[in-house]
Design goal:
UDP-n-acetylglucosamine1-carboxyvinyl-transferase, Chain; single chain; 14 helices
Amino acid sequence: MQTITITGGQPLYGILRPAAAKNSVLPLLAASLLCGGPCRLRGVPDLTDVQTSLALLQAVGAKAVRHGPDLCTLPVQAKELCGEIPAPLAGAMRSSVFYLAPLLCRAGMVRLPLPGGCRLGPRPVDIHLAGLAAMGATVQLEGDAVTLRRFGPLQGTDFTLRLPSVGATMTLMMAGCCAMGTTVLRGAACEPEVCDLADFLRACGAKITGAGTPVLVIRGRQALEGIAYDPLPDRIAAATYAAAVSAAGGQITIEDCAPETYGTFLHFLQDCGVNVKQGERWAQIARDPRRPLRGGQHLYANGWPAFATDTAPLAAAVLLEAEGPSEIYDHLFANRFACASGFAAMGADCRASGRTLYIAGGAALHGAAVEAPDLRGGAALLVAALAARGTTLLRDPGHIRRGYADLPGDLARLGARCARRQCVSPEQEKVRK
């Protein structure tokens, strides 16, 4: 078992550059299956979800390798592709759903065990399936798996998403590239990662307009070629670094990541009394740890351009010691605040009720033994520990490494007393004795 040890009270200083965004890299790897030439994604961090994606590509017959910081995929004949996605890989990450459209288009069928990932509550794939069915795919539900087949090419369609799902928008955009005729997606998600996938596909030869708006138009059956591509920098990692210095104090500069991509989080920090300066590709975040933050925040997490759901736990960590009560509501995920029990163990007065986290503020945080319940909740506990007195032991069952290659190391380079250690579990100790 790995444990992250954090001794709080150390201000942070320095410069960081976020790596390529996890939420862009994973769909881009799936989309590379549509390309007739090799693809190179540059500057990709070594995340466990990326490792799972590479294993999934290999399992379905594709060729994908890492060359230093870059990931390379090679073109593969359709007859060499297998549409059966292994259950262990599908269960390891939610992003296995991105392989529905590419494998359906290339192999003619795909069987996907229901995908896993963080336990954030119900995350149905019904919009993905309804859109693919509207393009002519047959959909068969079999217990905990779904099988899709096509008999002939998919057909372009005019489809309205019942809600602006990022994953479904990406799935149907990829499918539209292979469909006959024109596909119109209404009520589409507008997140920067959706735009990044559209930019990648356009660079490969796709005809896509409207990315970043609620109406996407894809003119299908264009030959897609492989390219070298720089994925979007990770705006959630940037927000994490900004939250860390806001909690611990100090001054950091985040470079090579457009502040507009996480602007709602920076505005929130400013409202709390954090000093934020920014340019086109950089942001400087500073806070005097002797000056208390302002609470009284009422945040509503939803799809772009609203407050990002992935940053909601990070905002909570910043608000624990702030003066005045705050609350955060997450419209997208029913169990976004599983980290609340960890906050409470560290001395915070907070409680989760449904989709809302209530924070009394004014906490005197102290070190404790806590466990990362999910990816962003684990990162939020780490941020809170930076402000706590004493040492926190954060038991990390692998969640944080799904989205950050080395978050403890990044923070240690800024001056935090933070390190990852391999610990022996009680069960392992019994075996050794």
